[in-house]
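User: Hey, my collaborator sent me this sequence without any context and asked if I could get a structure. I don't really work with proteins. Can you help?
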Amino acid sequence: MRLNLIIVYILTVLNLSFASQYFVASGGNDSNPGTIEQPVESIQQGQSLASPGDTVYIRGGLYNAREDQISSVQQNLFACISYLNKSGLPGQTIKYWAYPGEQPVFNFSAVKPANRRVVGIWMAGSYIHLKGLEMTGIQVTITTHTESYCIYSRGNNNIYELISMHDNVGTGLRHYKGGGNLFLNCDAYRNWDNVSEDGLGSNSDGFGCHPDPGSTGNVFRGCRAWFNSDDGFDIIRADESVVFDSCWAFYNGYSTEFKSLGDGNGFKAGGYAHDTADQIPNPVPRNTIRFCIAVRNKANGFFSNHHLAGNDWYNNSAYLNAVNFNMVNRESPQVDNIWVNGYDHVLKNNLSYKPYGAGSHTAYIDTALNTLDNNSFNLPITILDEDFVSLDINLLTSPRKENGSLPDIDFMRPTAGSAIIDAGVDIGFEFLGDAPELGAFEVEGTTPVEHSEEIIPGSITLFQNYPNPFNPKTTICYALSEPGDVIISIYNFLGQKVCTLVKQYQHSGEFNVLWNGKSDSGKLMASGIYFYRLSISNSSGSHLVQKKMLFLR
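Assistant: No problem. I've predicted the 3D structure and written it out in structure-token form, which is a compact way to encode the shape of the chain:
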């Protein structure tokens, strides 16, 4: 009793508050209070309970969506099962997370409202973190030009993590409007609209991103798209720049039986073909595609799509696409000539190998109009099958690692002694050896994409531990924008160091570490407030950040 009173007193003095947790389960009832013993049935009801900083845990199991669960019809057209318009706050996201160790699966195949576009989750709010859902069965009922979505994203500063969207009659995820969103470690595959128009699914992409003016900072990292009837990743008519980092696109434009379907580009990076000058953003955004892989897409692996500016293409690998790198641009906003040689593109350290059939390594690249440094197609090197550990495309669908990041695979990884090794030029990213390799992989491995809650570019970020309060263990997540010597230590309320969890040099990226409530000597600590501290030292100086947490035994 005395210990509990002390904890309550400390919390009062420090004005600390801890977030609430609510629970959704397939056997729940929306009239329940949302506890783990009495969960609600729908994410929509979970939203009504949650406040900034809260977590809505979604238990594992099959959720067969019903038409009576349509929560909102937007624009008199979009029938939304979940309409998430309640926002979190900076540092206090509202989290809709799969319960740890469980897999919730949402099946929308029974939702077929006439003359409506179907949306699994319409994300209108901001500072929301959606994690760990599997979504399938989205339907199309309109036979003219249309599109349905698993997720229709229209907010700011949201995180979409570990979302699997497959076997839908529509697009996996489409983002319109809003900036600062992170699409992390998501998969979209076997999505094909075989209902509308000609049945070839020319609107069904894996991922689309089309931010409006001012909506900067949208990033796709560690995502995969395959066997989508149109494109893997599509950012046509984006009004602001988009970044693709370490994403894979393969087999797009085909059915699983390799029937020819829609466009079939791996990465469609921009484009304003036939748009009038007043519809084109000024300035035209410059997109970045780096450390990505495009394989066996029907049309182009990496495609500029009649863009009206250059893009930055760094360390990408392309294999067996009809054209591996197609930089075609449009002449100008005033002139609707959409088939001109690309201009102002920067291509560095890219690897092109064996375009499909009678295809080509490149198209519409005029060396006088672009910057081309150390790409396989403008270096005096010969590349053979023996230069790669493996060319088995099936490896691209390998299971993700336990933390959700892309699998470590040997596909297109250079073998020892290959001319690909050290053939690149330094572009400001960490590399092994004397110079970067060509393509997406270094010979000794790739930088993992770890779990993260929020990514704030250009900063060192320490996230709130979860769960909090905790017993017996908690996870601490952090992000580094620069490499350096990192130390993460735990201190008690008196400022005495309890243990050191991390003490090593780390590259830039996102990481997590577990604390089990014990000291360095293995002693289980008492209940109370503890501090976790991140310090980093590098060429830019020394930095330290600290947060509080509560251990309850």
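In plain terms: Residues 193 and 199 are 6 Å apart (CA to CA). You can pass these tokens on to your collaborator as they are.
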